[in-house]
Each structure stands twice: as structure tokens, then as C-alpha cells.
Amino acid sequence: MAKIKVKKVKSAINRTLRQKRTLEALGLKKIGQVVEHDATPNILGMVSKVSHLVSVEEA
């Protein structure tokens, strides 16, 4: 399975509760933090919902 690296690049302040919870579910807490996930449809959908707050690259 392909892997992706997700990095939080913007703050979640003044964002909806749903977007904040999505970031938490991805394991992102601090700006600059990087997590690695499998590129499953669930994860890719979550990333697309907060794409304006994160950057993504293939690992």
C-alpha cells in the first residue's frame, strides 16, 4: 500500500469543529508536525477536507 506524509502547515484557530476533529483524527496537533499514513480512501478523503491546512507528499 502506498504511503503519504501529511504535514500541518496552518493553524486550526477559527476553523470549524469538524475540521479540528479531522486534524486530530489524522494525528496532527502542532504546526510543522508530520505523520505518515497509508493512502486509503478514508485517509485521502480526510486530507481533502483539510487540504487548505496541510501539505501532502508521497513517501
Q: Give the strand line-up of the largest sheet.
A: 2-1-3
Cα distance, first to last residue? 11 Å
Cα-based radius of gyration, to the nearest Å: 10 Å
Secondary-structure element string? EHEHE
Supply the number of helical segments: 2
Which stretches of 5+ consecutive residues score pLDDT under 50? none
Tell me the fraction of residues in β-strands, as a range. Answer: 25-35%
| Percentage of residues assigned to helices | 25-40%
Question: What number is the mean pLDDT?
Answer: 97
Report the strand count.
3
Class per helix and strand makeup: alpha+beta
Using the alpha-carbon principal axes, give the shape: globular
Keywords:
59 residues; alpha+beta; three-stranded antiparallel beta sheet; 2 helices; 27% strand
Provide an overview of this structure.
- The structure is a single chain.
- The chain has 59 residues and is α+β, with helices and mostly antiparallel strands.
- The chain contains two helices and three strands.
- Strands 2-1-3 form a three-stranded antiparallel β-sheet, with no helix packed on it.
- The longest helix is centred in the middle third of the chain and has 10 residues, at 17-26.
Summary?
The protein has 59 residues and is α+β, with helices and mostly antiparallel strands.
SSE layout and pairing:
Elements: E1 3-8, H1 17-26, E2 34-38, H2 41-49, E3 54-58
Antiparallel strand pairs: 1-2, 1-3
